[in-house]
Design brief:
This protein has 394 residues and is mainly α. The chain folds into 2 domains: 13-171, no CATH class; 183-384, no CATH class. It has 12 helices and 2 strands. The protein has a two-stranded antiparallel sheet. A hairpin with a 2-residue loop joins strand 1 and strand 2. The two termini are 31 Å apart.
Length: 394
């Protein structure tokens, strides 16, 4: 039977593939959101948000920034899983519009009540869940249908977050649940792509030991991670949970050591993936010993922002036909963001040349995101470079 001819996409390049609009939105939002938060935190700006300032800050980093990156990644990976054409054109425009309206509602720029803000904001992740399920089912790629589960849990965390703010005036459980879901996604997806990308590069360039393929030890790490994160969400101050978090951190250090990251210094694009993942056990250990503020920022900036930047850069290069190589400016940008993670973890006690750790880390953040946006942004709205063959890696 003759296959139907695929239509050639003729719309705006920015909406030709899922990673383009959402990675660009995440980078631009990342650049804006922290300076805006610092202005709010220092009392120079007052938001009209229905959320308390701290809850707004945490929510937007999780469900605004990270939500956009996760969506861009999934809409890029799913066509490889299903063999179907990528979602493009007006559906992407609509989804981006829903995301933007959610951010405006959360900031109080749209004068919505708490319930309408909740519906507006949660509509984005609900639409993502529906579209992912539809694509996977249409492609009969049943084994990847399970990817809907963490995204649905992320949506549930968002609903809990909003509900807590409406009912009790501030979030608690929703904060931890949102962080836990994203950190677990990093251990799940990172545990697949980091050793795979590293193996592929080492086989081609550097003979020697290779990353150990996914096996029972990785499964134990994931189970331990899920158990410790669930325990932390439910009972963050319990001593037994602290011990479990420390144990999980040790397991993930061993897991990371099996991926031959020490052999990737000649490939900064690979190295930054290993460095970002290293913040997972560091952050879990900090939570385990009771250093919650430090642990949250090590996970939030080091692991989540570090991994999302590394993935966005790599996916953008590969899917726009460019060599998988990054210049010194992007390396410096990543380094500044990782330094910002460390400084923010000690912001309450650190002061350098009269500047607090908070101010310094915010400045480094702004510089880092500015560089990434200037270097990677034009690739996202420009047409694909034709010299390379398509890169199938998400």
């Amino acid at each position: 039977m003759k296959q139907p001819q695929r239509k050639i996409y003729t719309g705006p390049t920015l909406f030709s593939y899922g990673f383009r609009p959402f990675f660009l939105a995440a980078m631009a939002f990342g650049l804006i959101i922290i300076p805006l938060w610092i202005a709010v935190y220092l009392g120079h700006l007052e938001l009209n948000s229905v959320f308390p300032p701290l809850d707004w800050h945490i929510h937007e980093m999780l469900f605004g920034y990270a939500g956009a990156v996760i969506s861009g990644f999934l809409f890029t990976a799913i066509p490889n899983w299903t063999g179907r054409m990528p979602i493009r054109g007006w559906p992407l425009m609509l989804l981006l519009g829903i995301w933007v309206v959610g951010r405006l509602a959360m900031a109080g720029i749209l004068d919505f009540g708490p319930l309408l803000v909740m519906v507006t904001d949660c509509a984005f992740l609900a639409a993502i869940c529906l579209m992912i399920a539809t694509e996977v089912i249409a492609g009969r790629n049943w084994r990847n249908l399970k990817v809907v589960i963490p995204v649905f849990l992320f949506l549930c965390a968002n609903i809990v977050f909003h509900t807590e703010v409406i009912v009790q005036g501030g979030a608690d459980l929703g904060r931890r649940l949102g962080i836990a879901v994203v950190v677990f996604l990093i251990t799940l997806i990172g545990g697949r792509i980091i050793p795979s990308f590293t193996r592929n590069w080492l086989v081609k360039t550097t003979p020697g030991p290779l990353p150990i393929p996914f096996n029972r030890f990785d499964a134990i790490c994931l189970l331990s991670g899920a158990a410790s994160l669930i325990g932390w969400v439910a009972l963050p101050d319990a001593q037994i949970i602290g011990g479990l978090l420390i144990t999980t951190a040790a397991l993930h250090v061993l897991r990371l050591s099996r991926w031959q990251g020490v052999r990737t210094f000649a490939s900064p694009l690979l190295l930054i993936l290993h460095v970002a993942y290293a913040f997972v056990p560091i952050g879990l250990f900090a939570l385990g010993i009771g250093a919650s503020p430090a642990g949250l920022h090590l996970l939030g900036i080091g692991a989540i922002v570090g991994m999302t930047i590394a993935v966005m850069v790599r996916a953008t290069l590969g899917h726009t036909g460019r060599p998988l190589q990054i210049g010194n400016s992007v390396i410096w940008a990543f380094a500044l963001l990782m330094i910002a993670a460390i400084l923010r973890s000690f912001a309450d006690t650190l002061q350098i040349f009269g500047l607090t750790g908070l101010n310094i880390s915010a400045g480094l953040w702004a510089i880092g995101f500015s560089i990434v946006l200037m270097r990677i942004g034009p690739m996202l709205w420009s047409k694909r470079v034709k010299q390379r063959t398509p890169n199938k890696q998400p």
